[in-house]
Amino acid sequence: MVYNGHAIGIAIGITSAKVNEAGVVTTDKITGMKRHSVWSNPLDIARDYKEMIENGMTKAEIAKLMGISRARVVQVMDLLKLHPDIQRYLNRAKDDPNALLFTERKLREIAKIQDHDEQIIAFKELIS
């Protein structure tokens, strides 16, 4: 995640959250707050957002909580459309110094490809 030009990543586990009448996001519990290394696996952030939705939050509520647009939440979550093999590779790459090759922008372009076989081909081109 990029905030004011700085690469950061925050994983948040929220048990429940809602926006009150004043438009303020309230949560019952926030757990698992941690700061990732310089390179954050964008899939981790996407999975965090997915978990928030599964726990009853809307994308708009997540956006408000995170200080980003709803469209940005959708962008990040689109990474979950990547072929499972690509996702596994990225999960293993967390400690790889070459992980910076996998920018979220490049991964989003691959995630837009609907055919998973074509995704694999595009990803192999990225890492070669």
Brief account:
The protein has helices at 42-54, 59-66, 70-77, 84-92, 104-111, 116-127, and strands spanning 2-3, 6-7, 10-14, 17-19, 25-27, 30-35. It is of the alpha+beta class. It has one domain: Arc Repressor Mutant, subunit A.
Helical fraction equals: 40-55%
How is the largest sheet built, in terms of strand order? Answer: 1-2
Distance between the termini: 25 Å
Query: How many domain units?
Result: 1
| Overall mean pLDDT | 75
How is the CATH topology named? Arc Repressor Mutant, subunit A
Number of H- or I-type helical stretches: 6
Strand content range: 15-25%
> Which structural class is indicated by helix and strand composition?
alpha+beta
What's the total count of β strands? 6
The Rg value, from CA coordinates, equals: 15 Å
**Under the CATH scheme, which class?**
Mainly Alpha
Low-confidence stretches: 1-16, 27-38
String of helices and strands:
EEEEEEHHHHHH
Rough outline = globular
CATH architecture: Orthogonal Bundle
Largest sheet composition: 2 strands, antiparallel
